[in-house]
Write a structure and sequence with these properties.
six-stranded mixed sheet; 323 residues; elongated; alpha/beta
Length: 323
């Protein structure tokens, strides 16, 4: 969304500047420099600049503009297509986890969703929800940051939850962006999603026939007392930031599910994710499976963006854990 807003702003600004410069030329007033006009094309305003040239009949006879601006418009078009593909092509990553034979001959499937960050995936989040439904989940776990504190749109997160609960039981914990939004509006949001059936377990727990699950955003684990059952239920900890895995493993969890790192935003082949939201270069836990004592941690690359408006070689991800 940030990238879309930026491009809209730059193209409107470029269009207006060409109109202003045309008016200044007609009135014989001090002009906007040609370098400034071209610079807006370089910065992503090439469509607005090209439209301004055509509408205002301005700079069309100068090769510096008649050749350069269309070239930048073509390059911008290609860049937008690539960025859209990188940012909206959702992939499904499956992991197997075996603790013991369930005895019923059927895998249990958990879908993990993380770091939506108000990303738009179709009307009422239909593209994302259709992908989740095809995964045939027995439960959906959401490990934080469904909203973004810098461009907060609760409606997108509400649409997601309202659709998700129709697919499978949904369990949710906050991320750092929800924590930074704590207050009356966030409380209203949480109560609203709980009313449609979302099980909010931040600092709490949920128990089924086969699973005991606890959730925390608090990296010190102060919000939870640990697992209570001593039976063969699979013990799952929902967390947000994987960097605190050494604290998480002390809970006795079999499986830890986390997100937060966004795959490092840019994945460099052979090197890994480039940058974490904490501005740490090449974070260790940017995706995938990691051993942590007696626990296994799975890190989702998530679906949205935060510190950077684009992903490169880092497709948004739905994680499926087959038990």
């Amino acid at each position: 969304m940030i990238l879309v807003i930026y491009l809209v702003f730059m193209n409107i600004a470029a269009f207006i500047l060409y109109g202003i410069d045309k008016k200044k030329a007609e009135d014989g007033k001090y002009r906007i420099s040609e370098a400034s006009l071209l610079f807006f094309s370089v910065l992503g305003g090439a469509f607005g600049a090209l439209l301004g040239m055509k509408i205002f009949h301005h700079k069309t006879r100068k090769k510096k503009f008649s050749i350069t601006v269309p070239i930048f418009a073509v390059l911008l078009c290609i860049s937008i297509i690539l960025c859209l593909w990188q940012n909206y092509h959702i992939v499904v990553t499956e992991y197997d986890y075996t603790k013991y034979e369930a005895g019923d001959g059927r895998d249990m499937r958990i879908v993990q969703i993380s770091d939506l960050h108000n990303q738009f995936f179709g009307f009422k989040q239909s593209i994302l929800l259709d992908k989740i439904k095809k995964c045939e989940p027995d439960m959906i776990v959401v490990t934080g940051d469904v909203v973004d504190s810098t461009h907060t749109v609760y409606a997108l997160a509400e649409d997601f939850f309202e659709g998700a609960v129709k697919i499978a039981p949904v369990y949710y914990i906050k991320g750092n962006h929800e924590v930074s939004l704590e207050g009356k509006r966030l409380d209203v949001f949480i109560e609203k999603i709980k009313a449609v059936g979302v099980q909010y377990i931040d600092g709490g727990r949920a128990v089924t026939d086969k699973i005991e699950m606890i959730g925390t955003y608090d990296n010190s684990m102060n919000l939870v007392s640990g697992f209570e059952s001593g039976d063969d239920r699979l013990k799952i900890l929902l967390a947000h930031d994987p960097d605190y895995v050494r604290q998480y493993e002390k809970s006795g969890a079999d499986l830890i599910l986390a997100g937060h790192i966004h795959g490092g935003q840019i994945i460099i082949p052979g090197k890994g994710g480039l940058l974490s939201p904490n501005f740490k270069f090449f974070p260790e836990y940017y995706e995938g499976v990691h051993k942590a004592g007696d626990s296994i941690m799975i890190v989702s690359r998530g679906l949205g963006n935060s510190i950077l408006p684009v992903r490169i070689n880092d497709y948004p991800e739905i994680v499926v854990i087959k038990l």
